Amino acid sequence: FQVKSENKKTIWNTEEVPEGSEFDDTWDPREKPEYEISFKQHVGTEDVFFGMTGKDPSTACCEDIVIKIKLPETKYSDITLDIQDKVLDLRTPKNKLLLHLPYPVNSKEGRARFLSEEEILEVTLRLSRKLDFINFS
């Protein structure tokens, strides 16, 4: 097995390095905040009462992923959030979270809101899986 590279001195091929690895810093002393991942699906009466669309409670039938991150003693202005297709990178002065997402997401679509009373950042992202355009059309 031989990999052809443009530069003979390179150790890694770009395909071998997972997305988001450039953010991973094991020497960063900031704490990793607590977080919770849940999935959300859009259902109507035809789903709940009649089961006409064939949706079930599994993650395969969900359209969105919701990530709730606990950020105590943090102001909204201190939060830096970067979302790529498979990685969520959150940084505050006290916390750092590099989260590899279980499914690819549409990094251009999404929303985040900071619930200041609960000190929770809630990030909702649209999943971008193969064949979703067929399953959810």
TrEMBL record:
Acidic residues composition bias: residue spans: 16-26
Species this chain originates from: Quiscalus mexicanus (Great-tailed grackle)
GO molecular function, one term: dynein intermediate chain binding
Gene Ontology CC entries for this record: cytoplasm
Signal sequence residues: none
Gene: Pih1d3
GO biological processes: axonemal dynein complex assembly; flagellated sperm motility
Residues of the PIH1D1/2/3 CS-like domain: 32-126
Residue numbers spanned by region Disordered: 1-27
Name of the featured protein: PIHD3 protein
InterPro entries linked: DNAAF6, PIH1D1/2/3_CS-like
Protein family according to the UniProt entry: Belongs to the PIH1 family.
